[in-house]
Design a protein that fits this description.
Quinone Oxidoreductase, Chain A, domain 1, Rossmann fold, 6-stranded parallel β-sheet
Length: about 375
């Protein structure tokens, strides 16, 4: 029996590097050799047990995490037509059933039976030597686009989906709440989409500087005001964020991408968005959010939208990467072999001030 190494979570805090059977291929299925696998905050939340879906039982153990990956086709199952061994690919974050009415119409992202790769209702993920995917859920990695870039397609696609849900338009002023990978990527994509001004908030100066380097116009540290003085001063309880935003956008911002997962910043987003504006929330809050000013939302005709997943935005991200307009590799702040995945998980927590994207590297 052929085997592979895989990172297996048997429960919160119980991570093991194990040798498991190589996935068998059925019709339409493709075995991919993983070359890069990015670590996401969701991976850590599952590992630590903090994720609400762990508490609810929606995540079943043991499981293999990882959903941001790039690799090479190793084998193809019967009937596969689009892929041959050696093709460079990236994969979707969910696997549809392939048999329901939505799937038969090609609406895979509406499949009620879909399984999330490496997370909820788990399809085993990419923190392993190999991952098996149906051919319909793979995308070609263009020539000239590196495996590093390929492993960052998924968070970039999620950020782009958030921009689409927020209806970012030419000339808009956009506020991005949160300076994690998706927040930083959303700021860059907002500029590419034609936003006149992009403001980003966050707690860590190193991450805000990374966002500015990728094109954000202004940054607000939610622990201290980094606008406009070169010598920032503390903001009491973060309550000065709306005032800091007002200095950049006195009439309010047109669009908000809320990627922080902070209930307080979500509420403040409704304060700073202009009447008729849109707030797109692309984060998990792990709790009900009390104190939301519904009257402002109603009287201001403000739209609040939830965002989950990437919903068909991979091709656009890959085209932008191929054209040289999107390169998020400067956000990689740590690299680890698969054998050191446990250390990588710990570093995600211990180096929160500086880590942005950690990457598992496997042989090419």
């Amino acid at each position: 029996m052929e085997t592979m190494l895989a990172c297996r979570l048997h429960g919160p805090g119980d991570l093991r590097l194990e040798r498991v059977p190589l996935p068998a291929l059925g019709p339409g299925e493709v075995l991919c050799r993983v070359v890069r696998s990015g670590l996401c905050g969701t991976d850590y939340a599952i590992y630590s047990g903090e994720f609400s879906f762990v508490r609810s039982g929606a995540i079943k153990f043991p499981m293999t995490p990882g959903h941001e990956w790039s690799g090479v086709v190793a084998r193809v199952g019967p009937g596969v037509r689009r892929w041959v061994p050696g093709d460079r690919v990236v994969g979707d974050t969910a696997v549809a059933c392939g048999a329901c009415s939505d799937c038969l119409l090609g609406n895979y992202y509406q499949c009620a039976q879909a399984r999330s790769v490496g997370t909820v209702n788990t399809w085993d993920g990419s923190h392993a030597e190999y991952i098996m995917m149906p051919e319909r859920h793979l995308f070609a990695l263009p020539a000239g686009v590196s495996f590093d870039q390929g492993a960052m397609v998924e968070p970039a696609a999620t950020a782009l989906h958030a921009l689409n849900r927020a209806e970012v338009r030419l000339g808009d002023t956009v506020l991005v709440q949160g300076s994690g990978p998706i927040g930083i990527m959303a700021a860059r994509l907002a500029k590419l989409a034609g936003a006149a001004r992009v403001i980003i908030t966050g707690r860590q100066e190193a991450k805000l500087q990374a966002a500015l380097a990728l094109g954000a116009d202004a940054a607000i540290n939610t622990g201290r005001d980094s606008l406009p003085s070169p010598h920032p001063h503390p903001l009491p309880g973060g309550e000065g964020v709306p005032e800091a935003v007002a200095r950049c956008a006195p009439q309010g911002v047109d669009r908000v991408i809320e990627a922080s997962g902070s209930a307080e910043l979500l509420k403040q987003s409704l304060q700073v968005v202009r009447p008729g504006g849109v707030v797109a929330a692309v984060a998990f809050y792990e709790q009900a959010v009390d104190g939301v000013d519904i009257d402002r939302l109603v009287l201001g005709s403000i739209t609040l939208r939830g965002v989950a997943g990437s919903l068909g935005t991979y091709p656009a991200v890959l085209r932008l990467m191929e054209a040289g307009q999107l390169d998020f590799t400067p956000l990689i702040t740590g690299r680890y072999p698969l054998a050191e995945v446990a250390r990588a998980m710990q570093d995600m927590q211990e180096h929160r001030a500086t880590r942005i994207k950690l990457m598992l590297e496997l042989p090419q």
